[in-house]
Each structure stands twice: as C-alpha cells, then as structure tokens.
Write the structure tokens for this entry.
Amino acid sequence: MTANLASYCQGFARAGEPWPELPLEEEPELDWWRRLIASSPRGELAGLPLLSALGAALPQLHLPQEEGISHSERYTALVLRGEGTKAIRDSMGMSGESAMPRWHQPEALRLWVAAHPCGAMPVLETPSRFDFVRMVRALAHQGEPIPMADGVHAQAISGLIHWGLIHRFGRQSRARLIVLHQAPYSSVAAGELPAQLGELGEQAWLAASSTLRLEHELTHLATQRLLGEMRVNLLDELIADCMGMVAALGCFSAELFGCCLGSSKPGGRWSTYTVGLTAAEANQALEFVMARAQELEHQLRGRPALLDSTNAMQRLQWLTRQQLDQPIHGAPTSH
C-alpha cells in the first residue's frame, strides 16, 4: 500500500477519546428558527410565506445568479453590509414579485428543525430540482451559478451570513442549515433496490430517501462536532449511509450501499470521495469500502439491538472507531 493510500485509510484521529454527555447543548441561534416557525398561525411555515420570511433574513435570495455576482457591489451592499433590501431592489430596478427570483414550486418549500443528539438543525426541503439548485447556489455559493451534479440532492451549509441572527446575536453570528431535494436517494429508482429490502413502491422509497438523506447529513455534522472532522472519504460515506439506512429502513444493506455509491460504474459517485488518490489507489479504496460494507451488514445482523433508534449514538461511536483498510471489529453489546 502506498503512503498516500495508507494516510487516506486512517480513521478519525480522535476516535478513541471519550464522548461528551449527549445530547449536546443546543446552539442559541436555533431559537431564531424556532420562533420563525412558531410565528405561523398553524405552527408550520411553508411556501411563499416561508420564502418571504427567509428573504428578509437572507438577502442572498434577492440577487440574480450570475457569474461574478459575489464580487459585485450589489452583493457587498445587500449581503455583506446588510443594507435594506427595498433600497437595493429599487436600485436594481426591481419591485413587487420580481424582487425575489422565480421559483418553480414555491408552495412546496418546507422548513422544520430536525432533532439530533449532537445538535438540532434547521432543514429546508423542496421537491423541485430547480428550486434546490437555486437555493444552494444562493446560500452556499454566494449566488454564483456553479455546476451541480445530478446526483447531488443535499447540502449542509455553515458560516452563512444571516441578518436575522446578526441583528439578534451580533455580527459574529452565522447560520447553519441543511437544504434537501426530495428525490430518490443517489438517484436510485425504486425498481433498482436490492430484493432483500422487499418491494418498496416509488412513494415509499421517496419517503425513505428523505429520511436517509437527512440522517446522512446529520451524521457528517455529528462527526464534526464530536470528533472535529467532516471528511471527504469513503469511510465517512459508509458511516453516514449506514446511519441513514438504519434510520430509514431499519437495516443496513451492503448491496444498496454499493448501488447508491455507483460502485460498479467507473467515475460513479464513489469517485467524488477519492480526490487526491491515483486511479489505482482509488480503486483499492473502493475495494476496501465494499469489503467493510459486507462485514458491517454481517455484524449488524448479529447485533440486531444496535439497529434500535435508542442505540443510534452507540452505533455511531462504534462506526467512527473503524478504519477503511482494516476488517470491521466486533460490534459492541447494546445497553
């Protein structure tokens, strides 16, 4: 094994350290999102009222998405200086409905706060691919029209300039949130699912995909908070997909993991997580992760109590103590 691949295969540096008491303390900024949701007469904010409320706090949503917009005076004034959106809209010659970008399915946009022992997160979800891409470009890429692969259906965002939080908590405040596209996980159709999962219809798989996708993103954020790392690595993807599948389907399937990873396709989704490796090293890393997936499925079958939601954090701690190039060591006895 090359030194480069050996370095890639290392586990989390702080995996052996004890974890803090869970659940972790909630970040104060979450109160802004909770109050926003509670301000709705029905306690659920969605659609155009949600877009309007977001636009007041996230002026990024008012700007056109064009190359170089993040370096423009308009971006500086509206986003970095937080100047009134009305004045900026007037200077840009916009008014009324044209003040916000057009959305394909604005009525379907939803906001909620997802609970997690490592920290709740506000979540925005839409069934529209167009709206998902527009939202991610506005919030994660400063309005730049960056290309997005068709298989990308989720984005965790941190360090977001959010004037609602700044006005309340100070200029150092930044927002964190997750944006989701409601679509089959990894663009895998219901008809392509492994037979071991039974026959899931399109709607059931779509609902399971949303749960899987959210838990996947929350797992990455959990490793960042608990271990100080959120890596672009196949081991991290195995861990996040395992946590997501168990939350959504009640089991982990190595076959489904490989299908979602595109393991049989040159340049499949798996290649996104092997940047920095040579072609030979990347293929070896793929072999490693698929072997670990088979072992993981076997281990969880032998410890079914670990699939219970009450043991989710114990399962995560065990997973984060693995290494990509080493066999999965024995699952812990659940409490």
Notes: Residues 91-98 have pLDDT under 50 and may be disordered. Strands lie at 110-114, 121-126, 154-160, 175-181. The two ends are 38 Å apart (CA to CA).
